[in-house]
Specification:
Among the domains are: 3-142, no CATH class; 252-463 and 587-676, Alpha/Beta hydrolase fold, catalytic domain (Rossmann fold), CATH 3.40.50.1820. Helices cover 44% and strands 10% of the residues. It contains 20 helices and 12 strands. It has helices at 3-22, 30-60, 74-99, 107-137, 149-161, 181-197, 204-213, 216-220, 222-235, 238-245, 251-260, 319-322, 367-377, 396-411, 429-444, 480-491, 514-533, 601-604, 621-634, 658-676, and strands at 266-272, 277-280, 288-291, 303-309, 346-353, 381-385, 417-427, 451-455, 554-555, 573-574, 610-615, 638-643. It has an 8-stranded mixed beta sheet, with helices on both faces. A two-stranded antiparallel ribbon has the order 2-3. It has a two-stranded antiparallel sheet with strand order 9-10. The longest helix is centred in the first third of the chain and has 31 residues, at 30-60.
């Protein structure tokens, strides 16, 4: 995309609109025309100020790529996001100039659209200035200021006060693939509606129904939706996020997912008892080491897993495996219907760790793409349901995942595999666990996997500033306030007590009786009707605090960032609802088994080939780029693929668009490369 052509088009369309709107006093909407002129004039000023900033970034941002064949880093992304915003403004401006005299021209609607994009452009201008500061203060080719606490402190401080609602209203998702924008709007509307009902004593179905009925006002009022979503993402507690994202585990949603996904022969859950395991040493298979069961926080406990296999293979019907099944009732194929024809064990095995910020979801949430992987690769998949934070902070999840990996090494014959090749695969938090489990295998002297496929992994669990982390100020799926809560929960810094996690994943309240559901629906209908009579009314514990009513964003004359980060005369819009972001500067966060980007070379040397599939519009993009750079500089085998126009979590969206499907297929191809690579080590026999 030629940025100079975009800025030239912006200047031309602004001039055309100003001339058209100011040159005709006979327009029937004089006050609205004045609003349009004001917004377009401000947009023109932002564009003129941003042109030299973008010119400077484009001259140097290639120095921050992994290599010439892999263009991708936060600086590139910020420029791309800005140009996407400008293209929307240009399109809207051309429409206004051509249709403002028409009888059916919606003057107020178009003025509100221009005002919203003017606010978004103002905030993006602030992000570009902050990126300039990072570029100046960081080392050459470095995307993170790992040793500069002041930069990160100022980044967090900006997040707490900057206005962000404009990115969740009319401008929602402008930077993403067009096919994903309706989905993002649905997520945001669902979340703010769910926020009204959160905390009420209702069934899971009733809560979902009530949320649906109260969503009408957020459909017809984008400004209200944006303001409420900003408030929710700033300060609602972690349990709200766990509860909302775990809605994907409800039978209603997973039922649809299973209908749409590939059928598989094997899909049931296992509970493996906490028994110490003996494994051969990688250096000398005649010697053994003992791996303890997970112990952190509450002592030995079982590990939960899910086995998925597109084909029925030897060992998957063994009594030893079926005795570990925790499916109630047992799968029908285990009881009354004969098993299909058994195939020999696969030489391959995938061990999967799911994403969810270490705090939410289970293997059930990720079934859709796991079923597809099993079919495409003809391979069994063992997905681990590790315990979740904040009830089970670090290192419980890592211990359980490492134990599951070791158990699979010893018991691959039960899983329908000979485990000649093992691939660890995971997304986001699961990508982190793939890397750290491999590090634990190295430090324990046992066999490491043959490769890792990590999709948009979190390799630095801090709020340190980077250009891609600036996207947390505008991202509807990964705002900084939410990210910081998840990281703090995993580190155990914001939990009052530690208790055993229940990793059922589904909502236990779904079994409430029909009478209660009807009551919920009645109350929801009443609230929905009331919302049209009084659109500023908020109900339930998630309502606005007194004194924090919704206002238009305002400019502050006071610079809140300490040293001046912005040019004289410019200040971003400030929010009426300030955020509180937990610090992630505790020592646990810097543990290399929490943040592998901070691991010394000695802990990373000897890792298997790592294939990272990242997203260009992901706030964690720079995590992937810097980790890939670190491994490559050490001589470790690593590849990085950057998918365009997609958000964090695209694997869970693979059925929604062609772009997400292509990115998911890229993950499959990277796993296939791991399985088809030449053997690095001789096959190890399973101990007796």
């Amino acid at each position: 995309m030629d940025f100079k052509a975009v800025f030239a088009a912006l200047e031309a369309v602004c001039e055309e609109n100003i001339a058209t709107l100011c040159g005709h006093s006979d327009l029937p909407y004089g006050d609205v025309a004045s609003r349009l002129v004001t917004a377009i004039t401000q947009i023109q000023g932002h564009g003129r100020a941003l042109l030299p900033v973008v010119s400077g970034l484009t001259l140097v941002y290639h120095h921050y790529d992994l290599d010439e064949q892999t263009p991708g880093n936060g600086y590139r992304t910020l420029v791309k996001v800005l140009l996407s915003c400008l293209l929307h403004i240009i399109s809207k401006g051309r429409y206004i100039a051509s249709n403002c005299h028409g009888a059916f021209f919606r003057a107020d609607h178009n003025a509100s659209e221009m005002e919203a994009y003017c606010s978004a452009l103002c905030q993006l201008r602030a992000l570009l200035y902050l990126a300039q500061k990072l570029l100046h203060d960081n080392g050459h080719g470095e995307l993170y200021a790992l040793q500069d606490g002041e930069l990160s402190r100022r980044f967090v401080q900006e997040y707490t006060s900057m206005h962000k609602a404009c990115f969740y209203g009319r401008c929602l998702g402008f930077q993403f693939s067009p096919t994903l924008r309706p989905f993002l709007q649905t997520v945001v509307i669902s979340m703010v509606s769910y926020g009204e009902t959160y905390g009420k004593q209702q069934s899971g179905i009733g809560m979902a129904a009530l949320s649906l009925l109260t969503s009408g006002k957020y459909v017809i009022d984008p400004e209200l939706r944006g303001a409420e979503f900003e408030r929710i993402t700033q300060n609602l507690d972690l349990q709200f996020w766990k509860s909302f994202w775990n809605l994907t585990e409800s039978g209603f949603i997973t039922g649809f997912s299973r209908i749409a996904s590939n059928p598989v022969q094997i899909n049931f859950t296992l509970t493996v008892p906490p028994i110490p395991l003996r494994l051969p040493l990688a250096s000398d298979p005649t010697l053994f080491t003992t791996v303890s069961a997970p112990l952190a926080h509450w002592g030995p406990g079982p590990v939960h897993m899910r086995l998925i296999s597109y084909e029925f293979r030897e060992g998957q019907d063994s009594q030893e495996l079926l005795a570990l099944s925790r499916t109630e009732p047992p799968p029908i194929s285990m009881t009354s219907i004969p098993w299909p024809q058994r195939l020999p064990p696969s030489p391959w095995l995938i061990i999967h760790f799911h994403g969810g910020g270490f705090v939410a979801q289970t293997s059930k949430s990720h079934e859709y793409y796991l079923r597809s992987w099993s079919k495409d690769l003809r391979v069994p998949i063992l997905s681990v349901d590790y315990s979740l934070s904040p009830e089970a902070p670090f290192p419980r999840a890592l211990e359980e995942c490492f134990y599951a990996y070791c158990w699979a090494l010893n018991n691959c014959h039960l899983l329908g595999s000979t485990a000649e090749k093992i691939c660890l695969a995971g997304d986001s938090a699961g990508g982190n666990l793939c890397i750290t489990v491999s590090m634990k295998a190295l430090t324990n002297g046992i066999r490491v996997p043959d490769g890792i496929m990590a999709a948009y992994p979190a390799t630095l669990l801090t709020t340190d500033a980077s250009p891609s982390r600036l996207l947390t100020l505008i991202d509807p799926l990964l705002p900084l306030g939410v990210l910081a809560k998840c990281l703090s929960a995993y580190a155990g810094t914001n939990s009052q007590t530690v208790q055993r996690s229940v990793s059922s994943g589904s909502l236990s309240a779904l079994g409430r009786d029909t009478a209660l559901l009807l009551s919920d629906l009645t109350q929801g209908a009443s609230n929905w009707l009331q919302s049209f009579l009084d659109p500023t009314r908020f109900t339930g514990p998630a309502r606005l605090r007194p004194g924090s009513e919704i206002h238009r964003p305002h400019n502050s004359s006071t610079n809140t960032t300490g040293p001046r980060d912005y040019p004289e005369g410019f200040e971003p819009l400030r929010s009426q609802c300030l955020a509180f972001v937990h610090s992630t500067a505790c020592p646990i966060i810097k543990n290399p088994f929490v943040s592998p980007l901070l691991a010394p070379n000695e802990l990373l040397r000897g890792l298997p080939p790592i294939h990272i599939v990242a997203s260009a519009l992901d706030a964690l993009l720079d995590d992937s780029v810097m980790f890939a750079k670190k491994l490559r500089n050490m001589g470790q085998p690593v590849s990085l693929t950057v998918a365009e126009d997609l958000p964090h979590g695209f694997l869970s969206l693979s059925q929604l668009s062609r772009e997400t499907e292509v990115a998911s297929n890229t993950c499959v191809e990277r796993i296939r490369e791991i399985f088809q690579q030449n053997d690095r080590t001789p096959l190890r026999k399973r101990p007796n």
